[in-house]
Design brief:
- By secondary structure, the protein is mainly alpha-helical.
- The chain has 2 domains: about 45 residues, Orthogonal Bundle (Arc Repressor Mutant, subunit A), CATH 1.10.10; about 140 residues, Tetracycline Repressor, domain 2 (Orthogonal Bundle), CATH 1.10.357.10.
- It has 9 helices and no strands.
- Helix 1 crosses helix 2.
- The protein is elongated, with a radius of gyration of 19 Å.
């Protein structure tokens, strides 16, 4: 593993635990076991490191989502539902520490740095776009009525999910996910037996 990858992997873990502002470069370099010079060879400054860290988090999230969405043995809605169950289980196993790195950085840096805000907004837009595509596939397959707007619904689901993650973090329970799951999949996206029903 090259130095840049080691720095990003170590940084990703520490930032998820402590937040970006409370993470020192020295502890990242120590965890990555690379000299200070290596950091400035790959990153202009701490903000540049943070922006590249967003890309690292985004790629990890997208890989997980792609895996869940790719299960052709399940209907599209069950793939989506399974995605949030999978994320909740990972969160529970980590004692509800960390959560969504993109959501965390948005809360911490979204109103502090225009560069962070733009990059984080782009990541959310990409995640919403992919979810909207899955919802549209479900609609075309007769799992949802034509009245469902995939893009608007995807935006609402992502927003609701971020809120559920915050609530799970402070309550240390999966109850917020259980409420999210019922409201989204048993009410908002209640399946239909026929298209246009």
């Amino acid at each position: 593993m090259d130095a840049k990858t080691r720095i990003l992997k170590a940084g990703a873990r520490i930032v998820l635990e402590k937040g970006f502002c409370d993470t020192g470069l020295a502890e990242v370099l120590e965890a990555a076991q690379v000299p200070k010079g290596s950091f400035y060879f790959h990153f202009k400054n701490k903000e540049d490191f943070g922006l590249q860290l967003v890309d690292t988090y985004a790629e990890t999230l997208k890989a997980g989502w792609k895996k869940m969405y790719g299960d052709e043995n399940l209907p599209h809605l069950e793939r989506i539902r399974g995605l949030f169950r999978w994320q909740t289980e990972l969160f529970r196993k980590n004692d509800f520490k960390g959560g969504c790195p993109i959501g965390n950085l948005s809360l911490e840096m979204g109103d502090r740095s225009p560069s962070f805000r733009k990059k984080l907004d782009r990541v959310f837009s990409e995640l919403k776009k992919e979810l909207a595509f899955q919802l549209d596939q479900a609609r075309q397959g007769g799992e949802l009525p034509d009245s469902i707007d995939p893009e608007e619904t995807a935006g609402f689901i992502i927003t609701s999910w971020q809120g559920a993650l915050v609530q799970m973090k402070v309550s240390k329970t999966t109850t917020p996910h259980e409420v999210f799951d019922r409201m989204i999949f048993e009410r908002l996206l209640k399946t239909t037996t026929a298209k246009n029903k």
